[in-house]
């Protein structure tokens, strides 16, 4: 299998793809080009980007590939059918196609463990009429022929959870003593967006979950 020149060489290389150069780039993890896609949550969350209230916004994937290769998207307002419709649109991610998809169980995420959640601070509650049936899908994408490193790296992983994002952060990161490389907050859905807490306020629930992980 042909690999990008910066994979597994053990020496510095020039990355041509349009990552954010102010943030250190990393080599693609070995398991992505290997093609053996047994689900391992610890591999997925290592050096990942965590994006709560994501909707189906592909902007972080476009701009942060090369800084990270694993993207964790969380939003309780999207159903599995809606995601399926949008992600299978031709060029949902321009220049990429899905080469692997898995439906992931709760036990595969939390290992059947009891999770330590921080005390609830926000006075509001998640609005029941906004919340879809929980699910988790995992996708691996491969760059299509005709595109090269000037476009973006050859592979990336996308884990999409329909879940409450503060709880998901504790399940995915805190219990494994791992932090995401990038915490992405473009719009947190607070107020008219149907979110029950603001992600951007340091004293509130998501920040408490982040800082609970030492």
The number of E-state strands comes to: 6
Listing every helix as H and every strand as E from the N terminus to the C terminus, the arrangement reads HHEHEHEHEEHEH
pLDDT < 50 runs, ≥5 residues: 1-13
Rg on CA atoms, Å = 17 Å
Please give the structural blueprint.
Blueprint: H1 31-34, H2 41-45, E1 48-52, H3 59-64, E2 70-74, H4 80-87, E3 96-103, H5 106-110, E4 135-143, E5 155-162, H6 165-172, E6 182-183, H7 205-212
Parallel strand pairs: 1-2, 1-6, 2-5
Antiparallel strand pairs: 3-4, 4-5
Helix pairs in contact: 6-7
Write structural notes for this entry:
The protein has helices spanning 31-34, 41-45, 59-64, 80-87, 106-110, 165-172, 205-212; strands spanning 48-52, 70-74, 96-103, 135-143, 155-162, 182-183. The protein is α/β, with parallel strands linked by helices. The chain has one domain (42-212). Strands 3-4-5-2-1-6 form a six-stranded mixed β-sheet. The longest helix is centred in the middle third of the chain and has 8 residues, at 80-87. It is globular. The model is unreliable at 1-13 (pLDDT under 50).
Output the keywords.
six-stranded mixed beta sheet; alpha/beta; 21% helix; 7 helices
Give a quick summary of the entry.
This protein has 214 residues and is an alpha/beta fold. It is built from 7 helices and 6 strands; from the N terminus they run H-H-E-H-E-H-E-H-E-E-H-E-H.
């Amino acid at each position: 299998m042909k690999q990008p020149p910066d994979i597994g060489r053990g020496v510095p290389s020039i990355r041509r793809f349009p990552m954010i150069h102010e943030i250190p780039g990393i080599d693609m993890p070995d398991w992505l080009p290997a093609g053996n896609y047994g689900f391992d949550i610890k591999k997925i969350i290592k050096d990942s980007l965590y994006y709560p209230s994501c909707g189906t916004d592909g902007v972080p994937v476009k701009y942060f590939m090369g800084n990270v290769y694993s993207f964790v998207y969380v939003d309780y307002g999207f159903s599995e059918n809606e995601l399926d419709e949008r992600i299978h649109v031709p060029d949902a991610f321009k220049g990429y196609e899905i080469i692997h998809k898995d439906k992931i169980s709760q036990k595969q995420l939390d290992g059947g463990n009891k999770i330590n959640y921080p005390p609830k601070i926000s006075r509001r509650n998640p609005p029941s009429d906004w919340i879809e049936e929980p699910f988790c899908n995992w996708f691996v994408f491969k760059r299509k022929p005709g595109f090269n490193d000037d476009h973006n790296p050859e592979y990336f992983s996308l884990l999409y959870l329909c879940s409450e994002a503060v709880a998901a952060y504790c399940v995915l990161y805190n219990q494994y003593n791992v932090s995401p490389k990038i915490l992405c907050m473009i719009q947190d859905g607070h107020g008219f967006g149907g979110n029950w807490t603001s992600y951007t306020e340091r004293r509130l629930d998501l920040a408490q979950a982040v800082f609970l992980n030492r």
